[in-house]
Amino acid sequence: MNVEDMVKNALNVLTSGGIFHIDRIDYDEKNFGNIYVVLSSNNQVDIRFIKDRGAFWCEVGQAGEWYFIEDVFTFIGVTVVNKSNDLIDFIAEMATLIKRNMPQIFQAFNTKNSKDTQIKIKALATKRAMGMFKQ
Fold this sequence. Notes:
The protein has helices spanning 3-10, 12-15, 69-76, 87-100, 102-108, 114-134, and strands spanning 20-28, 34-41, 46-52, 55-62, 65-68. It has one domain (3-134). The chain has a five-stranded antiparallel sheet. By secondary structure, it is of the alpha+beta class. A hairpin with a 4-residue loop joins strand 2 and strand 3 (46-52).
């Protein structure tokens, strides 16, 4: 099975119900195995997974703004402990957590709450970043 198929399988929990669909999978085997995956939904919330130079992460986006999934989860009150050092396992874990918390994520980014959510998530991200400098 190739990398794209493994990514699709890992994302099946989000894509099988038709709420999310995969817009893009870019895999660059030559550059450290970099990967860029984008999922979109009709609920105006997008998700992307990125692997760049060995580091990987997940972001939730809306209208061109992207937020680390950890900050989104913190905002909606979900504790995340990522145990995976493997990209495919990470994607599967995050997809499952996103699916489990989809109502709260969609509510946070709906038309009524979106601006307030974005402000609060940016504040959380700043606080997290500042905490990294204190260590």
